[in-house]
Amino acid sequence: MGQDDELLSPAQYGTFRRWLIANDYMEGYLNRSLATYGLSMTEYRMLVVLSEAPTERLRMSDLANDAHHSLSRSSHTIARMEARGWVVRIPHESDRRVTYVKLTPEGMALLERARPQYHAAIRRVFVQAIGDDKMADLDSILQGIISSTTMR
Questions:
Q1: Structural Rg of the chain based on CA atoms
Q2: Which of 28, 43, 52, 58 could, after both became Cys, cross-link 63 (CB 3.0–4.6 A)?
Q3: pTM above 0.70, yes or no
Q4: Residue 47 is part of a domain; what is its CATH number?
C-alpha cells in the first residue's frame, strides 16, 4: 500500500476538521453557559459523574477515568472544587494510596441549579442543529468512533 492510499480525501479531511472545530466551539459555548454558575465543563462533568455514583462518591482514579481526564488534571480540578465546598476528599481507611471524592450537598445543589441551563444550551446548539430525525444515526456513528478508539 502506497502513501497516497493512506491519505484522506479532501472531503474526508474537511469533514473531520469541521467536526473538530464544531467540538471546540461547542465546548466553548457550554463553558460560557456554565460560567454563570462559576463552573467549567470539566467541573460540571465531574459533578455529574459523582451524582451518578451509587453513594455519590468514587475513587479518585475512577472519577478521573469516568470523566475522561488524567489523574493529575483531575486532582487539580478536585482541589479547586473542594476549596469551593462542592466535593470532599476522603482517605481510604487502610490504603493510603486510595482517596475517594464525595459530592457534597452544596455540590449537588449547584449541579441541580446549573443543569437546566446546560441542557437548554445543548438543545439550542446541538440537538436543533442535528434534528431528532438524525439523532439516532449520529449516536450510532459516535458509538462506532468510541469503540474503534478504545479497542486499540
A1: 19
A2: 58
A3: yes
A4: 1.10.10.10
